[in-house]
Fold:
Amino acid sequence: MVTIKEVASCLGVSPTTVSNVIHGNTKEVSQNTIKRVQEKLEEMHYIPNMSARTLAGNSSKIIGLIIRYPVMEGKNAVQDPFNSELIGMIEAEVREAGFFLMLYASDCVEKILTMATIWNVDALIVLGVGANECKKIKKTAKIPVVFVDCYFLDDEDSYNNVGLKDREYAEKITEYLIDQGHKKIAFLADNRVGVDFERWTGYCHALERHGLPVRESSFFRIKYGESGIKESYDAVYERKDEFTALFFASDYYASLAINYFYDRGVRVPDDISVVGFDDNIFSRNVRPRLTTVQQDAGKKGRIAVGQILAMIEKRTLDVKNIHLDAKLVIRDSVKNIKTEQ
Amino acid sequence: MVTIKEVASCLGVSPTTVSNVIHGNTKEVSQNTIKRVQEKLEEMHYIPNMSARTLAGNSSKIIGLIIRYPVMEGKNAVQDPFNSELIGMIEAEVREAGFFLMLYASDCVEKILTMATIWNVDALIVLGVGANECKKIKKTAKIPVVFVDCYFLDDEDSYNNVGLKDREYAEKITEYLIDQGHKKIAFLADNRVGVDFERWTGYCHALERHGLPVRESSFFRIKYGESGIKESYDAVYERKDEFTALFFASDYYASLAINYFYDRGVRVPDDISVVGFDDNIFSRNVRPRLTTVQQDAGKKGRIAVGQILAMIEKRTLDVKNIHLDAKLVIRDSVKNIKTEQ
DNA sequence: TTGAAAGCGCTAACAA
DNA sequence: TTGTTAGCGCTTTCAA
Structure:
């Protein structure tokens, strides 16, 4: 390990000068010294020691990426294709900005904040964590925090968040179904909080707006794990005649369902229509191709990191809680049944 | 930030004593003091400062996870479903062992080692990096390194690696195809190095063993990106009559191909048989279900972290380069054409 | 059984 | 324009 001291003594200058050159505080350093120091730094392969820098009161250059702790058996937090894309994007952006990414999966606010303190983390990006946790994190953390895909119970606009117009687009895709003649539409998700709650609400709004009844029995909770999913789909199958269309809160579940139905001889969209949400690899890699709501995970990541960097550099932000636009993508999983009625 | 000093002065003891209690060096501390210190630590919510610890010569408790830098347009390094599962598993294991995970995507050995030095990283887990890079990393890094899914040009057994019996199982699945009467089998992958090279080699061995010709023209290089894939598949389609079976080096490409063929009216397995490799979500979420080689990404992750921890704790390892067993999973994407001939 | 003191590598206030 | 020095929080050696 080459230290600043070593470089300095090699050159016969003081550590301060070397440090100043490293940080570009060169107003008071002669051109000649700057050059000599820079060359020596290069020559000796000087690599900074971040622990020392951080300890000396500088920023750690670490950004903590918090992902939700896995609830599901045999499934981990990175595995969801939407999350993966987001994480990959965030890693790339953080790295390119000269920061380091510490990945930490947890639902426990205490642990998250401890991790942030231990490492003197500069900022936190928090993915898809529940409203209560968000509140606590925001209240306690003394560093910039950007949430991604979070929904809050209290003052929405006091949070820094990058999300999607989930409700609006859930409403749109539901209206599309209604427009295609569907009146009996089920909503299926593995929970009904946060993002999924918003999508459910959008679905409800669309039904109400068109004078269709909103029934609690039209909500199916999909259980976790392979066997849980199968069990849940069995329940849907039993009641399939009650519905003409199924709105899944994610492409993942929608594509699994299409294949499940295929196996049981139920054809999509002829026998039942299906829509999803997200437009990830699953929606395109299933037949029939899935009609869904398209969102850009990469964009979310880029914006989130952009916000974080702006906050770190203490620039202010005009918009705090951003909800990105999405796009209805019509493919082949919905049948127009208007004429049949 | 509560420091050891503060805790110490609150208690009227020295920082040394507090530090000793924290680290369990309690042979020379009285029971009473231990208790008092522990309670105070708790009460004051003492959280260590890792920068200071690291600077004072202790281990950083950071494990660096290096993933290959993305080559493909619009695709990032975390996005591959196999990688995601592995990363999620590694994160969980690392966290549970009391370490922290720094995620870093790069192909550049210099940058990787700089990152390791900057942070005084305790160990490195390196995923799917090329042989040349592996060699350099092993030679230069002065910390434990475990490679995952890497293949090496020089002395294989001098590396710590967790891989799969890629060659053997590629051979097995090829033999299965031959056993089902297939003689004209293409091999398709997006490259032919590392893991994919092994799979290709296994494929070649099987053909040779059964007296079938190995032709360079039976290798298809799948191009990156959505349009690249389509273009590549178009080329396969053009020559589809030359083959009765297609061996894809990954489930991802195999499942995409099945759907591509479906769209063009080519039925799998009736018109052409398809096999994949990995058995991830794609193989099960496609119809017909994909016949493939099953491997356990989670297990790889667990073993890799186990090896790393053992190395960090300076316990020795008997087996260094582990190649896990896989399993041939026969589903519905291969037709038995023996009788037709 | 406990504590004082030095030092890890770096930064920054201040002096020269 | 350059250098001296103190100190960030912690560990560890050595003395008490």
Observations:
- Chain A has three domains: 4-48, 62-163+297-324, 166-295+328-340.
- The mean pLDDT of chain A is 92.
- Residues 13-17, 20, 28-30, 33, 52, 54-57 of chain A lie near DNA strand D (CB under 10 Å from a C1').
- Residues 191 and 197 of chain A are 8 Å apart (CA to CA).
